[in-house]
Write a structure and sequence with these properties.
Chains A, B: InterPro entries: Glycosyl_transferase_4, PNAcMuramoyl-5peptid_Trfase. Chains A, B: Belongs to the glycosyltransferase 4 family. MraY subfamily. 2 copies of one chain form a homodimer. Chain A is 68% helix and 2% strand. With 331 residues, chain A is an all-alpha fold. Chain A has one domain. Chain A has a two-stranded antiparallel sheet with strand order 1-2. The longest helix of chain A is centred in the N-terminal third of the chain and has 28 residues. Chain A is globular and about 55 Å long. The two termini of chain A are 19 Å apart. Chains A and B meet through helix 1, helix 7 and helix 12 of A and helix 1, helix 7 and helix 12 of B.
Chain lengths: 331, 331
């Protein structure tokens, strides 16, 4: 377990150190956020704050994760969450880059973003399906059973990956919101993997490897919070939100715990659901709205709740749900 | 370990539920904060926000801690942290009550506060000294040795108790500052006690009891954060800060880990030290100041750092130091 603690600390220190180097550089390169015209009025003050800050945690997480990965673990299990994080992060990076260069708030068109995401997800799904330690079944938490999906495992995993990445992206709308809830998720997954490592001696190294990667994400994202907390000095951008979504779904994939995601990543889920419900209702009623604005955190904002309070509420909800998740892995 | 998780969740839910009952009542009873005239100018807006909110976490922590305490543990070891928390909390309660009723910012005079604190601390010190499972020695973390203080254990513990309680009180100066750092401390101590319970079968129930109490404090304080985070709807008051300081020192006392406090409660320590240095320097130089204002968080505030950023910085520092502390209890 010391290995996990050292990983968290190393990633944390690296992210803290990277902030004062990257933030002024992003500013000089004019990677400032072009605020979405569809967002709340009050967000106009955020114009000009640099984005693409996700690199502040993505790079330290990669470095710390590689340094502290246990040497004797199956290399594909070690690599898969890295590939998910870096792969989706890269798609987000391209999107951010185009967004800034074209001075458009929306970057790639939805289709241009979705096609590479789906292709990457299917590739990862096939890889996992063919791997002897993952295969075609998911663990059903709290019930101690496994659910064999057969070949349907591949589209299901692709859906989970694309869904998680885009939900994380939607949740990234308030200072410290995705970073805070994400850090709690990664810390919980790291602890769950450490408990699984202790309980399964035959898979100890593999679970430990995932605990280390999750710890690297925890420490790095917490370090990033130093700069992203309200009032934010930097935004994570799509490179950041895609990396967080990809990393989380990747950790769930190699531990076959994807069914745990709706619980621990509940705040991501409601961001997506509120968005889908809002659009569907709007179309069906030809112009009526259920929420004042979607995703849900903007609804709370327009209802008069201070930004910092909404972020705390989401953090506390995530903590409580992660504690419930931990109940499934303890005696 | 499930017992600890249930305790955290129960205390969290109780504190969340108690907030909307107690806060309006405190307002009606006019237990509003009279802001210290010596604090920063910007704090004047906080006039009228109810104080004594510490009851929102102290009561749920007591209830959850009692409900989930393991039945077979030594009852004195179970009771000691409760006594520390409730005893100092009660002194704080009296102070708050007088403060509000007299409309004075400072409540009891320093001496009126200190005398009962010292008496309570000596009593607790004697109790611990005479208990066969505690005795006169402290664990030296990271070195695996014990330091036998003999009868000096009693004044040392009294000093630790009084020092921790008053340092916690000094740290309680920004929205969510003491609650956030305190929650991190309690969560860490709960995890450390759970690890000690697994490592020491002969003391398993006693360590588990302390892990449960620490978990109760964690959950309750996190629930309180819902209302105390910036912009605060309620302040914890001396009843809250004394209860947090007392609980933390009490947990350290029964686990004989008092020497761990300067590390995990470092932010409390620097609050006290900065205050002492400021006053000593001021007296020695006949009017010069080292810090723009003491305790240190007010110095950062007057240096132009936003309140929420200072709180995050203190939280992150505490997290990192708690991770370092955990290194001393893991393989």
């Amino acid at each position: 377990m010391q290995r996990i603690l050292y990983t968290i600390l190393a990633a944390f220190v690296m992210a803290l150190a990277l902030g004062p180097i990257l933030i002024p550089w992003l500013k000089r390169m004019k990677f400032g956020q072009t605020i979405n015209e569809l967002g709340p009025q009050s967000h106009k003050v955020k114009q000009g704050i640099p984005t693409m800050g996700g690199m502040i945690f993505a790079l330290p997480a990669l470095v710390a994760g590689v340094i502290f990965a246990p040497a004797q673990a199956d290399w594909q299990i070690v690599a898969m969450p890295f590939v998910c994080m870096a792969g989706f992060g890269l798609i987000g990076f391209v999107d951010d880059f185009i967004k800034v260069k074209k001075k458009r708030s929306l970057g790639l068109t939805p289709r241009q973003k979705l096609v590479p995401q789906i292709l990457l997800s299917i590739g990862i799904g096939v890889w996992a399906y063919l791997h002897p330690l993952i295969g075609s079944s998911l663990v059903v938490p709290f019930f101690g059973v496994e659910w064999n999906l057969g070949w349907a495992f591949i589209p299901v995993i692709a859906f989970v990956l694309v869904g998680t990445v885009n939900s994380a992206n939607l949740l990234d709308g308030l200072d410290g919101l995705l970073a805070g809830t994400g850090a709690i998720d990664f810390a919980s997954m790291s602890l769950i993997c450490a408990l699984l490592a202790a309980a399964h001696p035959d898979m100890e190294s593999e679970y430990l490897a995932t605990a280390v990667f999750s710890g690297a994400m925890t420490g790095a994202v917490i370090g990033f919070l130093r700069y992203n907390t309200h009032p934010a000095n930097v935004f994570m951008g799509d490179v950041g939100s895609f990396a967080i979504g990809g990393a989380l779904a990747g950790i769930a994939l190699v531990t076959r715990l994807s069914l745990l995601l709706p619980l621990i990543a509940f705040t991501m889920l409601i961001s997506s659901l509120s968005d889908i419900i809002q659009v569907a209702y709007f179309k069906k009623t030809h112009g009526k709205r259920i929420f004042k604005m979607a995703p849900l955190h903007h609804h709370f904002e327009l209802s008069g709740m201070p930004e910092t309070k909404i972020v705390t509420m989401y953090d506390l909800t995530t903590m409580a749900l992660c504690l419930v998740a931990l109940l499934g892995f303890t005696a």
